Amino acid sequence: MTEEPHILYSVENGVAHMQMNRPKKLNAITAAMGGEFVRICREVDYRDDIKVLVISGAGERSFSAGSDVGALDDLGEPWEQRNRAEYDRDYIAPLLKLRKPAIAAIDGYCLGGGLEVAMSCDIRVATERSSFGAPEVRRGWHAGSGNTSILPRLIGYGNAARWVLTGDIFPAAEAHRVGFVQDLVSVEELWPRVHAIADRLAKNPPIAVQSAKNIIKQSQGTSIMQGLAWENDGYTLCMGTEDAAEGIKAFAEKRDPVFRGR
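The chain above was modelled as a monomer; its predicted structure follows.
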């Protein structure tokens, strides 16, 4: 019997859906799946009809428990592991490079590399039964793609240190309290809420959305003055687009704008 693909991918109404599909393994991610992350993220950015990416995990138990520990050897020798992005085996690098907005739809375990997938998205919606953590330290190592560098920028130094250094698992309410999760919902509300956010993003002008995302991300690692300079340049670029002119015209005419990404 042919095994189902470990990554499911579809596009509908401007929204791309990528689902990690190893529910029996808690959607643990392999090097081969990392290659699919690379391919899909490239397609999402290249296709003008795609406005936003939604990432989820199959089944009712896990968004993703992170890298498949039993398949870490597939990343190669230590030096190859260090340079895994160069071999298209890293699933975080393509998400961090993504120009278009990404939403994590989280239900269940969101651990280790799964936490890094979620933090590489721009918006995180989670069910109340989900749980979060960076348990790598309990196995003898720490994360290599964001838990020690990006997480502190999202939830603060002290909260990140607690998560990473203890390796403890935290409930969804705590992830929401510290700001990792933007929307905390019931299981029944998860997909209606995700779809509502994705549809709202898909209706917005793509140049403005992508410029704003780029500046939000870039300004996290620089001074306020540099961030403001980038912001002003991005604003100037946007104001020269056809979409901005359409937005102004639609406002004056009291109608919904029709954006074309120009």
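The chain has a mean pLDDT of 88.
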